[in-house]
């Protein structure tokens, strides 16, 4: 199980761009970086508003010299320091991820960025090229894939315990756009109303990429073709808020994704179900420490987090004994800790496999968003990926 021992590993100096006052996901990133003691948070720019950014950085306990006016200055100044940052977390609107990452990658700074990778396929491909060129580690915070019991589902499938995967369903109902009024949407959705920042579809960028990544991660399968209907169900909303997607997978199994912010009362009801010819697994974010596992002809078993028979992957993603609940923050922290592991292995020139989502997952994610939107724009025609 994970803990905060350094075991001789030096702490990695990290800075952040984005995640300022009242941002949605900034606190989760900063907390995740602190969780297992692997990073030292030393620099940042948290808002486009210089005063807001400085005030916020200081309130987080940063040295005022290292609360920068903008990310260009931060990249330049940090690269000149002998104790400059080695890693950067990005949690700004998605349309800026490429430009920000590029400014730091040129100085060999490793990147952990929020999803979707970018707002265009072009930016995603350019980003992948510079990541490869500069041999940096790039992690993407598809945080749901780091829940221990979700990882147990992956291990069960890899061991062949449910047989050949035949059906996959991922759903993610939220309800925050129900009843939204035109006059208030800008204050609620902010940059999400701007396609240059959010990409071609709000709902696909927001939670569609998470659902798509989860489905690939748990099953080790790829989507071959998608047919989608992406719509706006909330009457005064400018952007889309619901999508149904049908999927043809590379092993000929069939999948479906339903994502929505128009599901009244929906909170963060992420659920994945995978059915094979010998069994099935089912995981639900509302009950993240349990996994349902059914073998053909047998009653359903509930496997608990950190219990005796779970895989190493699942156990190593846990921190506390079975029965004590772990949740969203711990899963988020797993991605940061695995990012730290990757950086330290990369420094030693060791060969290793990434445990966390990477730039490749990011590029696939943005291509998927565009394919699904294209399908929807063509009356749900099947589109190849
Ligand atoms: N992994 C998840 O579960 C999850 C959840 C929500 C959002 N996200 C993603 O995280 C990113 C941010 O989303 P959010 O909901 O936190 O947005 P937000 O609007 O709540 O916060 C964005 C923050 O970035 C700051 N910012 C914007 N441009 C900046 C710049 N150039 N320099 C410095 N700071 C800048 C803003 O001041 C703000 O504080 C997006 O890519 C989004 O898709 C991921």
Topology:
Elements: E1 12-18, H1 26-35, E2 39-45, H2 50-59, H3 71-80, E3 87-91, H4 97-105, E4 110-113, H5 121-133, E5 138-140, H6 148-158, E6 165-173, H7 182-189, H8 195-198, H9 202-219, E7 223-231, E8 242-249, E9 254-260, E10 271-276, E11 279-284, E12 290-295, E13 301-304, H10 312-315, H11 328-347, H12 359-377, E14 383-384
Parallel strand pairs: 1-2, 1-3, 3-4, 4-5, 6-9
Antiparallel strand pairs: 6-10, 7-8, 7-14, 8-9, 10-11, 11-12, 12-13
The protein binds nicotinamide-adenine-dinucleotide.
The site of nicotinamide-adenine-dinucleotide has 24 residues, from strand 1.
3D architecture notes:
It contains twelve helices and 14 strands. The chain is of the alpha/beta class and 385 residues long. The protein has two domains: 12-143 and 351-358, NAD(P)-binding Rossmann-like Domain (Rossmann fold, 3-Layer(aba) Sandwich), CATH 3.40.50.720; 147-321 and 363-384, Dihydrodipicolinate Reductase, domain 2, CATH 3.30.360.10. Strands 13-12-11-10-6-9-8-7-14 form a nine-stranded mixed sheet. The protein has a five-stranded parallel sheet with strand order 2-1-3-4-5, sandwiched between helices. Strand 12 (290-295) and strand 13 form a beta hairpin. The protein is globular and about 65 Å long. The two termini are 38 Å apart. It binds nicotinamide-adenine-dinucleotide. Nicotinamide-adenine-dinucleotide (NAD) is lined by residues 17-20, 23-26, 45-48, 71, 91-94, 96, 114-115, 141, 143, 190-191.
């Amino acid at each position: 199980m994970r803990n905060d021992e350094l075991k001789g590993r030096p702490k990695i100096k990290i800075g952040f761009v984005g995640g300022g006052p009242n941002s949605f996901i900034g606190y989760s990133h900063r907390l995740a970086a602190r969780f297992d003691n692997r990073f030292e948070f030393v620099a940042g720019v948290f808002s486009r508003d210089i005063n807001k950014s400085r005030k916020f950085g200081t309130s987080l306990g940063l040295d005022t010299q290292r609360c920068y006016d903008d990310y260009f200055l931060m990249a330049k100044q940090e690269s000149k320091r002998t104790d400059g940052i080695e890693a950067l977390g990005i949690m700004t609107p998605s349309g800026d991820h490429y430009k920000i990452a590029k400014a730091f990658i040129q100085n060999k700074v490793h990147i952990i960025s929020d999803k979707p990778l970018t707002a265009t396929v072009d930016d995603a491909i350019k980003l992948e090229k510079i990541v490869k060129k500069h041999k940096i580690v790039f992690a993407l915070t598809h945080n749901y894939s780091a829940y221990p019991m979700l990882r147990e589902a992956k291990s069960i499938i890899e061991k062949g315990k449910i047989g050949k995967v035949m059906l996959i369903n991922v759903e993610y109902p939220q309800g925050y756009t129900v009843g939204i009024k035109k006059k208030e949407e800008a204050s609620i959705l902010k940059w999400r109303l701007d396609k240059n920042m959010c990409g071609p579809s709000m709902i696909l960028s927001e939670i569609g990429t998470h659902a798509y990544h989860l489905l690939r991660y748990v099953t080790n399968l790829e989507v071959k073709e998608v047919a989608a209907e992406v719509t706006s169900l909330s009457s005064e909303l400018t952007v889309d808020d619901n999508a149904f997607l049908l999927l043809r997978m590379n092993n000929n199994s069939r999948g479906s994704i339903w994502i929505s912010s128009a599901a009244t009362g929906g909170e963060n009801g992420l659920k994945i179900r995978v059915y094979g010819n010998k069994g099935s697994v089912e995981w639900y974010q509302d009950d993240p420490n349990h996994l349902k596992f059914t073998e053909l002809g047998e009653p359903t078993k509930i496997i608990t987090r950190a219990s005796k028979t779970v895989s190493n992957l699942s156990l190593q993603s846990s921190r506390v004994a079975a029965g004590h609940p772990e949740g969203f923050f711990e899963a988020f922290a797993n991605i940061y800790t695995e990012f730290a592991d990757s950086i330290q292995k990369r420094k030693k020139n060791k060969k290793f496999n990434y445990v966390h989502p990477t730039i490749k997952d990011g590029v696939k994610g943005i291509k998927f968003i565009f394919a699904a939107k294209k399908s929807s724009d063509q009356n749900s025609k099947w589109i190849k990926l």
